[in-house]
């Protein structure tokens, strides 16, 4: 199918209060108190505990005069059962504000817990768009990777362990009240996550920029994210220079502000079922799919390519087919230089699962804003090329 | 004094929910209802009433099942006495949500009324930064010019009629809950206001970009605003093409998102006392001051000039003194082509008042974020050059 969808002319733009800066993790407590909390439910993970960041957060919360319950029964690609356990614990302990500290997993788990404590039921009841009825408890999210964007986004992604799929929940309710980034936390991020989370930010920015729901309000953030990633990804991966890591944290924030409002596209519509089936790393899946999806999208987004080429660091004005080549070349070179995985096979995806994955992607909410209307055959073809 | 101030490394970014699009004025009612309102206090002016937009707003509010009280006892550069009258009327009528529809005057009056109904006292009690204690009633602001940015900003500017000065009130509380722009309303904007309000947006964007509190989050919006103004100002003034007018409305929004978070500088610090003393048009004052202030700022913001030149539509990469020349030239050419006033004298400012105006500007909150620390003599020199 080849027709392009019509671009939307109306726009809505909503972002939480944003706080960004080195050393600002010590404001967690005052943020939670400012939102009216007395007893904090802190969701984080064991890696951050070992790195000392959880202690920093606990100290800040207690110094703000609040009580705190610490919860870390979560795993990468957070599971429905973990979220349900967290919600029970929140209620049992009488908490009244949630803080999520970590990567996408800790933050999405915090969102899932927030959904259940005020809306009840099971997390799969809220799959899709705007299924949440009651307002969530106050929520502060503190990202510690360079990619997820969950700290500003209207998305929560939770794994359904029974059906082995990702549940994509989209609602303005799940955006937090405050997004607080302290780029110092990237110092202890394991090497492999610098690349995989930054390529997640990269795919957020590119899909947001191509989305049919993109507007000038989201485009400026998407392009800024691309400029920061293209300037700092390779250096951050190879040298771990604090300035480059901070740029990636900032890129993640800009990309999050873009995609939360313009939504995403085929990369994420495919990445969700793959992540659900294999429990594979989300950023790695995106890095593999992105070049193929961009190639597929390009014929219907030609007028946006010159700005995209500029965003990717190409400093001479280009147009038409030249812009298309520049975009694909720069992207390929960058992913190679950063050591990103380049095939689905290398991620453990089985070839016989591809048709099922293509089918499942059609049900993901992210496909709705793809600039090019893909059918099952198109999606399968993208998967095969990325295999 | 020549030293540059240090740029801030921490950033905070907060914007209201934003809705933008042609024909969306009919969502005023549902916005007010969504914020929990039952009886709307609608603040607008007689020009918008004659143009039919007030009727559209009233219809939307009534169709949403809400009651409404209409208030239009306001004048350009809204006065303390008007705001106090509005607050009394709001309380007498038992309203519970405020909608401001108009230019900066109607929206700032709506903000002033909101401050008084929940905090009491007189409007001058809230001058300066963060003096408001109690939360305001829900607030929806709908701009109908291409410049003020009041619909997203944390500022309210009210004239003190006794002391003949502008009161600058800055607080995160005065940003509305929802900013709703329907660019169709620009169709009936009188000719002279296209230029004067767009030059207000232009000065917001440039001052926000140079501000010591600017960050990547505000810079992307400042630059986008400049791109839109430089692409559409002259055409919008001369031809009133709907596309160019919409671009200016969008520029105003982007510039507002930038300056509300990065704050402003000397142009506004000087424009406020001038507007207070002469009741002159705010955008015209800015248009006159802007080139002189930019010239004054340039030595301490050299590293930002290449991006600024690009934002102003210059498509070849330039650096150093060349960028400085390009910026000044493009700005001068654009203001001339748009027919903006070019001297304080032409606005009715008296030469003997200049020393007093320079002194008053030192007390304005906008001076705090100027990239170059100006003393009274510097400010007087700028005023004399702009005379």
UniProtKB/TrEMBL annotation, chains A, B:
Keyword field contains Glycoprotein: no
Every Fe-containing alcohol dehydrogenase-like C-terminal domain range: 196-387
SUPFAM superfamilies referenced in this protein's UniProt entry, alphabetically: Dehydroquinate synthase-like
Keyword terms, alphabetized: Oxidoreductase
Coiled coil location: none
Gene3D superfamilies linked to this entry: 3.40.50.1970, Dehydroquinate synthase-like - alpha domain
InterPro entries per the UniProt record, alphabetical: ADH_Fe/GldA, ADH_Fe_C, Alcohol_dehydrogenase_Fe
Protein's UniProt keywords contain Nucleotide-binding: no
Pfam families registered for this protein in UniProt: ADH_Fe_C (PF25137), Fe-ADH (PF00465)
Annotated Alcohol dehydrogenase iron-type/glycerol dehydrogenase GldA domain residues: 17-183
Molecular functions per Gene Ontology: alcohol dehydrogenase (NAD+) activity; metal ion binding
Family listed: Belongs to the iron-containing alcohol dehydrogenase family.
Protein name (database record): Alcohol dehydrogenase
Lineage, top ranks: Bacteria, Pseudomonadati, Thermodesulfobacteriota, Desulfuromonadia, Geobacterales
């Amino acid at each position: 199918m080849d027709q392009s969808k019509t671009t939307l002319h109306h726009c809505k733009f909503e972002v939480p209060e944003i706080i960004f800066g080195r050393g600002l993790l010590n404001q967690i407590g005052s943020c939670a108190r400012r939102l009216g909390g007395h007893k904090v439910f802190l969701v984080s993970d064991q890696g951050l505990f070992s790195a000392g960041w959880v202690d920093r957060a606990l100290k800040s919360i207690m110094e703000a005069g609040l009580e705190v319950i610490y919860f870390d029964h979560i795993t990468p690609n957070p599971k429905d059962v973990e979220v349900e356990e967290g919600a029970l614990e929140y209620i049992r302990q009488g908490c009244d504000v949630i803080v999520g500290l970590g990567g996408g997993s800790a933050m999405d788990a915090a969102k899932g817990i927030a959904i259940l404590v005020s809306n009840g039921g099971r997390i799969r009841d809220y799959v899709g768009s705007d299924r949440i009825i009651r307002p969530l408890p106050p929520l502060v999210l503190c990202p510690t990777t360079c990619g997820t964007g969950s700290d500003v986004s209207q998305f929560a992604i939770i794994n359904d362990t029974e059906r082995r799929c990702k549940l994509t929940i989209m609602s303005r309710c799940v955006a937090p009240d405050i997004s607080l980034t302290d780029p110092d936390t990237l110092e202890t991020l394991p090497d492999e996550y610098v690349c995989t989370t930054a390529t997640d930010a990269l795919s957020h920015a590119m899909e947001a920029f191509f989305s049919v729901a993109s507007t000038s309000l989201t485009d400026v953030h998407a392009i800024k994210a691309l400029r920061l990633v293209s300037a700092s990804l390779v250096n951050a991966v190879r040298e771990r220079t604090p300035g480059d890591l901070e740029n990636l944290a900032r890129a993640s924030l800009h990309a999050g502000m873009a995609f939360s409002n313009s939504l995403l596209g085929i990369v994420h519509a495919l990445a969700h079922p793959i992540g659900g089936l294999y429990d594979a790393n989300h950023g790695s899946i995106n890095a593999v799919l992105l070049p193929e999806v961009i190639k597929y999208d390009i014929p219907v987004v030609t007028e946006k390519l010159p700005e995209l080429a500029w965003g990717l660091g190409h400093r001479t004005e280009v147009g038409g087919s030249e812009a298309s080549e520049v975009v694909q070349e720069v992207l390929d070179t960058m992913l190679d230089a950063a050591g990103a995985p380049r095939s689905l096979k290398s991620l453990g995806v089985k070839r016989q699962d591809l048709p099922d994955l293509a089918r499942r992607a059609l049900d993901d909410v992210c496909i709705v804003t793809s600039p090019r209307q893909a059918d099952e055959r198109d999606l399968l073809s993208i998967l095969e090329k990325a295999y």
